[in-house]
Specification:
With 246 residues, the chain is α/β, with parallel strands linked by helices. The chain has nine helices and ten strands. Helix content is 38%, strand content 24%. Strand 4 and strand 5 form a beta hairpin.
Length: 246
Amino acid sequence: MIEVKELRRSFGPVVAVDGISFEVEKGQVLGLLGPNGAGKTTAMRMLACFIKPDSGTASVCGYDVLRNPIEVRRSLGYLAENSPAYNEMTVGGFLNFVCDVREIKGADRKRALDRIVPMCSIESVYHQTIETLSKGYKRRVGLAQALIHDPEVLVLDEPTDGLDPNQKFDVRKLIAKMAKDKCIIISTHILEEVEAVCSRTIIIAKGRILVDSTPGQLKAEHQCSLDAVFRRITKANGSRGRKKKA
């Protein structure tokens, strides 16, 4: 459902994503790991059609991110890194605005809201303005907007950032429940989250894929915890520069 081919993106002299290729199928939850500045968020933004690649391409549900960006956005739910939203809107107003944008109307809208509000546990803040919410509740509202159209593909950048332990548990349980019917990519720094919900792991550093495996296979191969595997792999590749190619 997601196919990435030699995707590349630079910002001035810095190569953020350096020719990565991978595929993710329905039923898979891919954990995208890497140190800060590895290129994870840039890759996710290209998949979500927020920025264009310099070269290479990607497709979501058969739709090319360059030729068919509207169809890609319809097929995909995207939770951005900082849960951007309109602070002056109430939670309900914001979700109705998202429904307007996604052309969810009438009875379909009511069903969507009735499904997503309890799913993301935001009933108690539904009438509050977003600027008054805690970081955790803002994150849950961001997750709600990504799920409201029940997309086939989810791209979630740090989905549990700012949540308390109980909220993290609930979101991980929700992701695990959705996994059998969807194709999901999660970027996270919480390695216990990868072990809890991800069936596959890609580790990237300096814009390149270093490892494509499963959490269990990585631990077995290196005979250590996933945290130790991550440090070992990323530090071993930390000395290589990432300059713009001629």
